[in-house]
Write a structure and sequence with these properties.
Blueprint lengths: L5 H10 L12 H6 L7 H4 L10 E4 L2 E4 L4 E3 L11 H10 L8 H16 L10 H11 L1
Antiparallel strand pairs: 1-2, 2-3
Length: 138
């Protein structure tokens, strides 16, 4: 059985009504087979023999092409946050692939505990709960 080519992929996608573009791979040999007009912008002018593979971003997720690792950035302030800011940070997490689920669930549990204590939105959070937040934010 032969390896599928880009033409095969294009044919199947066209049949389904999909116009696939901005392609990239973490294998230089595969990138070399992608027609230049269908490559992601970051690899169009890339010297596949020498240049460093780029970091691609989609849906708030960064993909380091070279190491084949995903990275998600969440802006967590270093100062002790009030309840309002913790809620803002947790609510701002966009994680379509679910990579940050452990962080989000623990942070929501922390928010539930803060709510049970009936603390105001801008009240100082007790040290024990701040330590939990510091652990999550690290």
């Amino acid at each position: 059985m032969r390896e599928p080519s880009n033409a095969d992929v294009d044919s199947v996608l066209d049949h389904g009504g999909f116009n696939m573009r901005c392609r990239i791979s973490n294998h230089r040999e595969v990138v070399a087979t992608i027609p230049v007009e269908k490559r992601a912008k970051s690899v169009v002018d890339l010297d596949l023999d020498q240049d460093v593979m780029p970091i691609e971003r989609a849906l708030a997720v960064s993909w380091c092409v070279k190491s084949d690792r995903f990275r998600v950035y969440v802006d967590v302030q270093k100062r002790p946050p009030p309840r309002r800011e913790i809620l803002s940070i947790v609510s701002s997490v966009y994680d379509p692939l679910g990579f940050l689920t452990p962080f989000v669930l623990r942070a929501k549990g922390l928010l539930q505990e803060i709510t049970r204590l009936q603390l105001g939105w801008d009240a100082t959070i007790p040290d024990g709960l701040l330590n939990q937040w510091a652990f999550l934010a690290a």
